[in-house]
Here is the input.
Amino acid sequence: EVVLTQSPATLSLSPGDRATLSCRASQSVSIYLAWYQQKPGQAPRLLIYDASNRAAGIPARFRGSGSGTDFTLTISSLEPEDFAVYYCQQRDAWPPYTYTFGQGTKLEIK
Amino acid sequence: EVQLVESGGGLVQPGGSLRLSCAASGFIFSDYSMIWVRQAPGKGPEWVSYISSTSTTIYYADSVRGRFTISRDNAKNSLYLQMDSLRVEDTAVYYCVRGDDIAAIHFDYWGQGTLVTVSS
Here is the structure.
């Protein structure tokens, strides 16, 4: 099973700052990594898929990068609504498929 | 508009059973793989089970294999999760989720979730 490790666990920043979140996989997942945003009381929302593609309706300030084992989610200039928990996720390359999530990074207002 | 609406959650004793349902609308349900994901209180999401568009391929997480059964009815645009031999550690919000394309590598739409509480 692929283990996804996110860092940092908590990131304290101010609106307008640049945020950089990391996700490291225990083995290569090629580009098949996604990022989700979750706000309290809501379901996760897909932000980025295939490492760098923004999902429908996601603002351009969200950028995903990386391949293999190291991935980054960058939010160029934080808006108040961006403070939330972010998860990375992958699916095994070969069947039987399993899906795993990282433990999350909480982005909080400084 | 894609909508996924879960139902069937509630309080159940350890060893009990529960059946979750998910009503899908706004897309051609029979074209998509579907997934159940759960999230325990204060924890991150955990994948539970996957079913292909025609039900020919099914996968389970090790933590639920042999106890949970996923199924779907494409004529009714519905997804199900039969949960037997429930344990305290199965307590979570259960989300019905759509696979993002034919490969279903990622999850593009999520329901609002239904809470399952396993407690005596």
About this structure: Chain A is about 0% helix and 50% strand. The interface with chain B takes residues 32, 34, 36, 42-46, 49-50, 55, 87, 89-91, 95-104 of chain A (CB under 8 Å). The longest strand of chain A covers residues 19-25. The CA atoms of residues 16 and 25 of chain A lie 29 Å apart.
